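By way of example, what follows is a protein record of this kind.
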Amino acid sequence: MRRPEHPPPALLVRDVSVLDVEAGVLVRHRDVLLVGERVSRVAAAGAVSPPPGAATIAGGGATLLPGLIDMHGHVGGNPAPPWVGGMPDLDANLRAYLYCGVTTILDPADIASQIFPRRERVRRGELLGPTIYAAGPMFTAPGGHPVPVLRQLAPWWLRWYLIPRLAMQVDTPEEARRAVDEVVGKGADVIKLGVDHLPDQAPRIGGEVLAAVVDEARRRGVRAVAHIGTVEDALDAARAGVAAWMHGVYKERIPDETVPVLAAFQIPMVATTVVFESYALIGQGPRAPTPLERETAPADILAAFDHVPASYDFGLFGPYLEKMRAQRQAWRDNVNRLHEAGVTILAGSDMQAGVFPGAGLHRELHLLAESGLTPAQAIRAATLDAARFLADGKEPDFGVVAEGKRADLLLVDGDPTQDLDALARIRAVIKGGVVLERRAISAG
């Protein structure tokens, strides 16, 4: 991905179908004029004349929609399988998000000294990437998630550095409040809590500490979001006042009588079913890559998922993988019933081993459709509804194709409201009104 050195001052997309993501319908035969970083005009085809120096794109047969938003889009993750290892390439991850049409991400757990400066470099235009919202490190109990994951997966020589920087292990309300103040002071957009036994033997943050984190974050003008896994996790996090459930209930089927109880909290859920689907399929045979994965990831990394080495030890996570295989239908059913009960579903991928930056969100949208959302509803989960959450009660200036809004847009062949595969048939990724130069990794 590359931003042209001298982009034109304006861009006219002629005679294109515009996706009204709020209504879930295409508005056909539109001209859309972008001036600077904003959408200047949306009008009937033929009604707009391009200003001097403007570039034009023929939009026939294509759909213009908002750039996608990944509500669980890690920057510092490594999508390679753990038996291959290697260090993450953060700049390559950012380029891959953009290549796949993801123009905004919420990174809900990363090293503060890494993610916050990178967010600012992207904001200033010094680094090409999606707009970043970030939490910094995750708040957890001593020894709670993500500590066991890091101990299992990170090289021994790296654990000492990663664990204290990725996990804020707090044991008392007083510790929690001090830690929240520290992370908010460094620039957190949200505070992330680990409210889940992962693995099942790991400790989980206590109720008083959980409440103190949420309360102190609120006092500092920042919302808290919670990684959950069970109904108990969801209820505890909701009662503490979190603003969103990250992952939703994925370890068990929600009892029918509990669905309206959860819905009554009016808390959105970032389902991230793609990461659990990826876990469930590890070791179950060849993994078929998607076109976007082939275009953004090395072929040897994609092929490495086909066979788990006999010598590889999953350790504590062997039983976890078995549970994921057993719960594949449960989490689809949970998403479906919560959605029908009025819970706002948001789209996120949780980029990590087996979940590729950008391409993983496309897989997630297909899984949301398998879980009962229409294609238009799945797209809304990755555009307008996600933008409204990030705007925190204000009217978002992105996530919709409309006059005056930020021109972070995606031009694709076909009608994605009828066929989600159309989202991967990308003609152009537009960031801040500029058409980016896309180059597949396979192109050299």
Remarks:
- The CA atoms of residues 92 and 364 lie 21 Å apart.
